[in-house]
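#struct-queue
[09:14] JT: dropping the first one here, sequence first, then the structure tokens:
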Amino acid sequence: MQFRPEHVYTFVAFVSSVLGMWSILSAKMTRQENRSTVLEKDIENLKEFKESANRRLDSHDEQNKAILVLAEQVKSMGDDIRELKRVIMKEN
């Protein structure tokens, strides 16, 4: 079998087309993988932020409960002071 110039040209054109497509697809795959890595990191950061926000909200809930208890104690103390004031006023 004898190779003609047009066979060589066809072969070279085919090989260069395949290499070009492989190069393009490889570059696209690399960019897509980089995007995936960035998205995974963003998701990880959002999960950490969510956990931090939940801890802060839990802390605020505990602080609000403590404030409500203190407010109730202050109210009770005010009632006790009024009662003492009435007792003192009756004695005078």
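[09:21] JT: and here's the second one, same format:
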Amino acid sequence: MKAVTVTFPPDRAAYYLNIFRKARYAAQKDAEDFLSICLAIEDFGGFLIGKRKSLNESRGEILKFLDADEDGDFYLNYERLREARNGASHEGPYARNAAALSIDVSIEIEAALMKRVYKAKHIMSRGVEFAQPFDSLTKLRLKMLENSYSYLPFEIEGKFYFVSDLDIAKAFAKSSNRSERESASFMRLIAVSDIACAELISEDMEISEILKKDSWPLLVKNDAGHISGVITAFDLL
């Protein structure tokens, strides 16, 4: 099959990369939400074709975009997902199987989109949530568990740091005072002096340079100097 020859702007690739990642996270949390990935595929296929189409109608252009063959794993998973999308039941074991298929399909499309982006702004996670100086250890633990965060940034006197899930776990293990964990600032229970400052990079830094970094995660700042995103090693997969 011929490789796709249509010009695909990096900003558009970044847009769909974000759409697919959000849909995949939703499916990973709730199997019955595999339809979110189906809708993302239909939206993406519609962009490639120029008009929103069904999974069946989008298949040809998506295969071209991935340079995938009709006898490969992607095609087989795509066809199984299409059949599941049209099935009568979207609950229980049926939904879990469909979710697994949709996640595999999404990951392949995401990989193809990643080849078409090259800057920090294309892959960073926006809407960065910060830990606040008045947050308790218990509150940070809950926030991390609810959102599957491994790190939360915080700021002290103009400098940025990351508190990690390991920092929280160690602090919990050392503290036997429940009241202190629930009411005192986490900075009283975690030695900030032992945490390295977070590295800030520009939105225009190229991914090839980002991959050379030794300190993770990375905070991204825009031209105005404000924090606009965060990049973890996970975002580069």
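[09:30] RK: nice, looked through the second one.
[09:31] RK: Residues 92-114 form the longest helix (23 residues).
[09:31] JT: good to know. The chain is about 50% helix and 10% strand.
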